[in-house]
Design goal:
This protein has one domain. The protein is 51% helix and 17% strand. The chain is built from 4 helices and 4 strands. Strands 3-2-1-4 form a 4-stranded mixed beta sheet, sandwiched between helices. Helix 2 links the parallel strand 2 and strand 3. It is elongated. It starts with a helix and ends with a helix.
Length: 132
């Protein structure tokens, strides 16, 4: 896990980047193509667009090099993440920054509801396919 001093420095980095919340991921969810062993899944403010989120992600990633251990500087924008990745980040990530709890709760509720719907549909489909 990340040391308390690193978490405080991390909050300073994220405060200036329109990040509403961030989860520390170690290890990163399977299937993510990266050499990094850990990193952050961040939820940017609702008013940011994809281009801004990409630029902010790169800026945060550069700033994390002095805060997080080597190899733990991957930044994932949850706003643009696919359902499986977002669900894995919420399930296995540790909340380390929470500037806007209302936005975070709306996002978590939406993703977890979609994951449940997807899982139930997949199980029903796979069950029907197995009985054929």
């Amino acid at each position: 896990m990340v040391a308390e001093a690193s978490l405080q420095r991390l909050a300073t980095v994220l405060d200036g980047a329109t990040v509403d919340c961030a989860y520390y991921l170690h290890p990163l969810p399977r299937g993510l193509v990266t050499a990094a062993r850990g990193g952050l899944a961040v939820l940017f403010g609702a008013t940011t667009n994809p281009s801004q989120r990409y630029d902010l992600s790169q800026r945060i990633r550069f700033q994390l090099m002095g805060v997080l251990p080597a190899g733990h500087t991957e930044v994932i924008a949850l706003n643009d993440a696919r359902l499986a990745l977002a669900g894995a980040a919420l399930a296995s990530g540790v909340l380390v920054y929470d500037r806007d709890p209302a936005h975070r709760l709306r996002y978590e509720t939406t993703i977890l509801s979609e994951m449940l719907d997807f899982t139930m549909t997949a199980e029903r489909f796979l069950g029907a396919a197995a009985s054929v």
